[in-house]
Design brief:
By secondary structure, the chain is mainly alpha-helical. It contains 4 helices and no strands. The longest helix is centred in the first third of the chain and has 41 residues, at 15-55. 0% of the residues are buried.
């Protein structure tokens, strides 16, 4: 109340010691919390690895590393960047003809005669 009236703040002789203890307690709680979550994450990773082993799944990091190694190995000795793979169904003329043949099978006979006259 002394501070509100313009007087000097009352100082507790043990205030600094209490503050240090409080800060230490907070640090200790934070370390315990981090250790707890690190332990939980390690357990989860063990479970994930078990599932990956069981079903033959690779980690994303492993997949990316293998893909990068494959790209580097493919482009080794080349002056240009490697060509991108063409997805199936894009640019294959033989496949386009087979699609037309498939569509033609479902067209009724009178319409088919109109196409054949041309």
């Amino acid at each position: 109340m002394g501070k509100m009236l313009g007087g000097e703040e009352e100082k507790d002789p043990d205030a600094q010691k209490k503050e240090e203890e409080r800060q230490e307690a907070l640090r200790q709680q934070e370390e315990e919390r981090k250790a707890k979550y690190a332990k939980m994450e390690a357990e989860r990773e063990n479970i994930r690895q078990g599932i990956r082993d069981k079903y033959g799944i690779k980690k994303k990091e492993e997949k990316e590393a293998e893909a990068a190694a494959a790209m580097e190995q493919a482009s080794e000795g080349s002056l240009t960047r490697p060509k991108k793979a063409v997805p199936t169904g894009c640019g294959d003329e033989e496949e386009e003809e087979s699609i037309v043949d498939t569509v033609m099978k479902f067209i009724p006979a009178p319409l088919m005669d109109m196409f054949n006259k041309k």
